[in-house]
Design brief:
126 residues, transmembrane helix, mainly alpha, transmembrane, 0% strand, membrane, 5 helices, globular
């Protein structure tokens, strides 16, 4: 029974680490983007450069054997296009918001996103 509990414990710490890591990255990204957008006032280009960095990072880590990713296929890309488009618009809008508001305002608006998603989910999916 001890190994099963150890696996559950490992799972707990792995999940906790991912949640903390995501929160840390997300909050740091808001602060870094706020600073960057004041020095580099092109939110669209900034967003695309961040995507490029992410793609290159995943590709390099995959080549080095640190992670596995599915190969790129046009069929899979077509399936994910609507979600990727919405995600892109969200990140672009968030970056553009930082041009005109401070991080506190950004956090308030970003915190309202689950409420909007819940209302849209209720309205469209009944």
């Amino acid at each position: 029974m001890a190994p099963a509990r150890l696996d559950g414990s490992k799972q707990y710490y792995a999940t906790s680490s991912l949640v903390v890591g995501y929160a840390l990255c997300s909050s740091l990204l808001a602060v870094i983007n706020n600073y960057t957008i004041t020095k580099f006032p092109f939110p669209g280009l900034l967003t695309e450069l961040q995507y490029l960095t992410s793609v290159l990072g995943v590709w390099v880590l995959g080549k080095l054997g640190f992670l596995y990713h599915d190969p790129f296929t046009l069929e899979t890309a077509k399936k994910f296009l609507p979600a990727a488009t919405v995600s892109h618009h969200t990140i672009f809008t968030n970056t553009n918001l930082l041009r005109h508001a401070n991080v506190d305002t950004f956090i308030v608006f970003r915190s309202c996103t689950p409420l909007l998603v819940a209302m849209a989910d209720t309205a469209f999916r009944k």
